Amino acid sequence: MLPRVLPDTLFARNHLEMDGDGVFRLTARGRSLYQPHPAHMALEDGAPSEPMRSLAVLRKRLGEIFRDPLACSDAAGQLREMGKEVNRLACHAPDACIAAILITPCPEYTLQHALNASVLATLLGMQAQLEADEMEIVTLAAMTMNIGTVRLQDLLAGQASPPSTSQHQLIRLHPILSSALLREMGVTDPRWHETVQTHHEEWNGRGYPFQLTQAQIVDAAHIVHLADIACAKLMPRGYRSRLPARQALAQLYQNRDEQFDARLVSLLVRELGFYPPGGFVELAGGELGVVVKRGASAQSPLVVLPDAPQHILDTAAPEHPIKGATVPPRINLQQYEALTRLWENLA
């Protein structure tokens, strides 16, 4: 791997410093960027049913760290415990975890994206049959890859216009900022730092911040990158609805072997299916259904109708074919609370 050095920009010189190859630290001015900020809105009381309740608790705990990262006692230990819980949920309730990516409202976009990406990266790591120690790094890196620019990412999530020059510079630098902040928080694992620092590198060498080539990118970083981009497409932003899963996956597939590893994209398609849990579909008879569980193929999930949630329909059966996916209006808290109950007995 090429040396991972600090980009020569005014912002980087003022806010970051190097302490060896790939070791970045915040300057005093850099530390001043991370003052505590309040939550926008709490969602933890909006998910009364398991396993969604456990995801809501994780979101609350992670939010406390994101909002005041330098004040957390044993942040590294807390994050590792949260990573174990993500792994447990991904193992025992994968359909609910995928559904949460699609249906959970996002008043704090970067926080929700971090949890979603850690879940999806964990599921993808399972498909890739990673060893346990590498799986932990994938989960933790996905959870913390954007921690250095939370407020910027929240702002961009509601900004329809392209990033300004200064915003673009921060975007290009955020993998290093996140690593430097994690070091201030007590994270010392070099694999965790390397994965965070390189999670935006691409196979074609056009990624950032180091422009690494395919052979120089560790597998963990590539999995996190794919989960990051996939979640960004599957989540709504302030100026647009989320993309239907088929469209999002098609866009990723078009960039296989350029931006992404084709093998990982294929594993992602297998993991989500074209109609993932949490998605809405129109059946051939005109009924609107909610996908609750993946089926025997990517084209044939199990769905329920809103007025008969206890009756699961197998869309592989000739009497219940899917006409197509539909993206509903934004889900509010009341609808979210009702939807979470659909997975209570499926975990």
Automatic annotation (TrEMBL):
It holds the Pfam family HD_5. GO terms for molecular function: phosphoric diester hydrolase activity. Residues 88-284 form the HD-GYP domain. This is HD-GYP domain-containing protein. It comes from Crenobacter caeni.
